[in-house]
Amino acid sequence: MELRIERIDSWLVDIPTIRPHKLSMATMGCQTLTLVRMTCADGLIGWGEATTIGGLSYGPQSPEGIKSAIDGYLAPLLSGKSFSGLAPLVALMNGQVQGNTFAKSALETAFLDAQGKRLGLPVSTLLGGALSNTLPVLWTLASGDTQQDIIEGQRLLAEDRHRAFKLKIGARPLEEDLRHTQAIKQALGPEISIRVDVNQAWDAATAVRGMAALQQIGIDLVEQPVPQWDRTALIRLSQRFTLPILADEAVADAHDGYALAAGGFTGAYALKIAKAGGPAQALKLAQVAQAAGVGVYGGTMLEGTLGTVASLHAWSTLKLDWGSEMFGPLLLKDDVVTTPLRFANGHVSLPSGPGLGVDIDEDKLRFYRRK
Ligand code: MUC
Ligand code: MG
Q1: Whole-angstrom Cα distance, residue 285 to residue 257?
Q2: Among candidates 60, 59, 56, 48, which has minimal Cα distance to 13?
Q3: What letter would DSSP give residue 56?
Q4: CB of 303 shorter than 6 A to ligand 1
Q5: How many Å apart are CA 95 and CA 368, to the nearest integer?
Q6: What keywords appear on the UniProt entry (predicted)?
Q7: Does ligand 1 come within 6 angstroms of the Cβ of 250?
Q8: What digits encode the pLDDT tens for the residues 25-44?
Q9: Annotation marks residue 325 as catalytic
């Protein structure tokens, strides 16, 4: 039952966003997906995606760098080889290529897609089995304008597409961000869960002031208030406030999760397949979190449908303490799949069918791929 990889192709795919998406470090008007096609000797094809945010402004792996790691190193390493399952594939990639978790995530996803199609099983089954076929999904209000965010939030609540929201703060002075946050919290009402993501923008002293004020406003969760490297501040903040912290940039894989928890962190971890090196690797972080009594949350790098679905298969095997933010495809004007995901009642549905359960629209891939 070995799966032999014949060839691996990759493309950069540029898709505009439905509106500017403003984070503390970048404003996105377009999202670049790195897509991978893994062709196996038996003719089966697996697809994967690796996507980051804002070129090199969010993290150290750019879309172009991801593609070059795949084309120049990982594709030649894997092509022509046979694998009995995921573990030997991951061992080979990690043995020969340092870092580059985004590229590895796309390949792990493509392998799982191909293997699932071959066995006639959804990827979630390969990863342990889905606890649920619908997952809670919030939306990020990040137009950069308070009034526009309120109108957008009210519309999505009226449609019942989402029941919780995340705000992107940190680019503006603290007082301005607090006014923005309070106005949105008041307008959407006390029942609606509002979280904020600072994306590392505050130093430890600003974070103490910010956390105290956000707790007063009634915010439910504060994501990555301090820089990724400042684990000490993150741990201290998590112990000082009852308002919980979600670690994102500070926790990529199981090793980070262990170090933070062993250091006394309380709160939750944002799981992302790209940070960890693939859906199965992200689940290893989830297991560390659960063993340490730390919550888990289904995180996104604002991927298109392929990367989002790969994540959903993994998250479906977990009890998500804080739900998920797998709305990436809704931020894009278009996508390269034949059937869009279904978002309704504050939830997204996990596709059924073997592998990822998603088909690629080859015409759209041709249209949007970078020439
Ligand atoms: C992040 O840092 O969490 C996830 C949702 C969103 O709007 O931005 C991303 C990145
Ligand atoms: Mg974040």
Answers
A1: 6
A2: 48
A3: T
A4: no
A5: 34
A6: Aromatic hydrocarbons catabolism, Isomerase, Manganese, Metal-binding
A7: no
A8: 999 999 999 999 999 999 99
A9: yes
